[in-house]
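Obj: model holo form, ligand = magnesium ion.
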Amino acid sequence: MAKQVKSIFTCQNCGYKTGKWLGRCPDCGRWDSMVEEVTAGRGPVRGKTIIKAEAMPITSVELVHDQRLATRIGELDRVLGGGLVPGSLVLIGGDPGIGKSTLMLQALCSLAAGGSKVLYVSGEESVQQLRLRSLRLKAEDDNLLVAAEVDLDAILAMADSARPDVLVVDSIQTVFSSDLTSAPGSVTQVRESAMRLMMMAKQTGLPTFLVGHVTKEGAIAGPKLLEHMVDTVLYFEGDRNHVFRILRAVKNRFGSTNEIGVFEMRTNGLKPVPNPSAVFLSGRKANTPGSVVAASMEGSRPILVEIQALASGSHLGTPRRTVLGLDANRVALLVAVMEKKLGMHLSGHDIFMNVAGGVRIMEPAVDLAVIAAVASSFLDKGVEETTMALGEVGLTGEVRAIGNIETRIGEAHKMGFKRCIAPAANLKSSLQAGKMELVGVQSLAEAMEALF
Ligand code: TYD
Ligand code: MG
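Output (holo structure tokens):
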């Protein structure tokens, strides 16, 4: 019988499949994203052995405690939820050059030094390049095996014969299966490779890291399905012009998301930053107009950040609002509240905002600090160096209660802050103060009075 060759078109954005070419994907609406892929007869091989499973009462499931394998890089373990879970598949995404390969190599070196046998498979660098990199990182170990390979079957065979404790595949977009005719990096290839690696991880209990590229839009290249498939998705982000890198869990089946790890990129690799507040506040000038400190909760950890604002007279019909590190819409809303409730005429001013150190804060608990920073620049009056502002601000100019106030205040106290402007509603609860002067405010007007 002649082999049946079938042509299908796959959307490179969402993975939608159709029998004929379409200009626009009916599923995600993206134009010009359909790519022809030819499947020869039997189609993709979906894992040759399927785990045989039977349903059972949840109460008779055997509990396995504390089997996590710590990488001994504190900031990475924190984001993973305390170490690597056996059989877990971790996707780590980030812009090119941000340091994904460096982080993976360092993590493996650290594991190797701890006595684990680890395998790093790179589809982007030669083994010589990997050696050079590890020399530069001053981290080498006989337990660290490296290979330059892109063939999926070869990678699976290598893992099978070497039996490592941890596997890294850098990157999933370079891996290809010869069972499929489409090009490496296409949706079908990425999905098939990830699926087969996942099957292996689940069957053998091998924790596997997949490095993933990020598209212009900021999503991990390949179908969204990839993010659904893996257990943990980490994003490595930061401004390439800054030394700080932030590792963020956006999905974690084995731990909390929102947890972040902070690293500093040095000439000899990434250095974990166990006390980010001190680093983010370093370089702050005392009593400068336009600078206010707030405490943001990143996962379970409070981090002090410096919110900076510059309000300068505008010559433009529509004044500029340039925001880095904060939600621009939120800032626009807060500026409107300031105009209305504080009577500050900001419509004639360009406003620029930044969070020092290249951090990104999306928490409404920093609202009051944002407003204080803008007001401070607008009025050209500095806020006392050891004063911090906390609170969410509503549309009527009210200062609303926020969560984890004690933890935030505790961190501020540790960093030498003496006074905190906080929502009055928070102070009513049984707050353990004493060490700090707490000023409870109910409205923006009260907050301004307390600050300036
Ligand atoms: P890399 O890990 O290759 O990034 P990715 O895998 O995410 O593409 O990191 C490359 C960048 O990191 C490169 O611009 C140089 C810088 N770097 C250092 O500053 N110090 C180092 O020790 C290393 C290995 C890289
Ligand atoms: Mg790389």
